[in-house]
Amino acid sequence: MNLITNPDKSQWAELLKRPVMNTENLFDTVRAIIDRVKTEGDRAVLEYEEKFDKVDLTALAVTEAEQAEAEALVGEELKKAIRLAKRNIETFHAAQRFESKRVETQPGVTCWQKAVAIEKVGLYIPGGTAPLFSTVLMLAVPARIAGCKEIVLCTPPGKDGKVHPAVLFAAKVAGVNRIFKAGGVQAIAAMAYGTESVPKVYKIFGPGNQYVTAAKQLVSLRDVAIDMPAGPSEVEVLADETANPSFVAADLLSQAEHGADSQAILVTTSPALQQAVKEEVERQLALLPRKEIAEKSLANSKLIVVRNMDEAIELTNSYAPEHLIIETADYMSVAERVVNAGSVFLGSLTPESAGDYASGTNHTLPTNGYAKAYSGVSLDSFIRKITFQEIKPEGIRIIGPAIEEMAASEHLDAHKNAVTVRLDKLRVEN
To answer: In degrees rounded to 5, what are phi and psi of residue 263?
Structure first.
């Protein structure tokens, strides 16, 4: 890890750079896969599954028999844990339901909104080194609460041609309608355009590698919506001298084991804590099964000492971390000053892992500084708000002349006339 002390503000931009994930050079490769899936459907997806995931499939859909088999393979303790997490995620997201209010902006002019679920959503769950069944819950549970009619899930199978049992069990618990064995670019393309098996959806959610990220970017240009721009996962711990070095090190490593391009940062006012965390990271790292992955990530990671808490908070808001853990004596007052972060974890007993799994908040969050402008996935991610307005005679008489004046000033005479003919009719009637 890189140890940095009292960096000048002129250095911050360089200091806070994320690991570069350049998708530009991937676009040609990704575009070719997308175009073929768009044209050839299932056949192309099956061939790409053989090429990239090294599995020979005869069909993409997961059968009911496979789902039943998977449920039997999941241990009871894990089932209990998944159900607990599901309940908490459900409770938190259900509280986000939109309540419509009718607003009379002028006498006779009433406006309101209605929340409507996105009818068809696609969830992408990566395969790779870890089965992310928790992400199934994070995406499918709010989709179900929102009222999405069709929830489609794509995930790469193992070399045995089967989806990880915990992923299938979580999908059943969360209410996923249909599951398909497809990974990478071909999965994104299948959901974006539809195939003989995979339905076309209106919005795609879920994390993935740089190829998946590039695919989501490309299909979102004109064909389908996506949840948010995404990059490698990241955590910042904001701490003072009261923080527990063992806890801080564990939190940094929990993020580092995600992948070699993940980033873990400590920002602290305490040089003693910086040193203690460095030593503790080295001790805990040696014990990790995913040590090699975490080591690579730590090369992108930094332990930064700053002069005071004001500077620590300013640096944090400049970084805009995906996950922010605040471990200070007065963490509530510090938290009040945080304006750029995806999800915030308060106090020494609130690890980032809690939000990843079971506290109830969503772990699908903006990365790469996008927390300055984007929210994480919530119930709102799965709904649209349609506006309505109703104007009575009194209302059009009040606002009509203003509309006429504004339309005329923009040289949009037909707009003006749409009001004028109504006002003329009302004058005749009276």
So the answer is: -135, 135
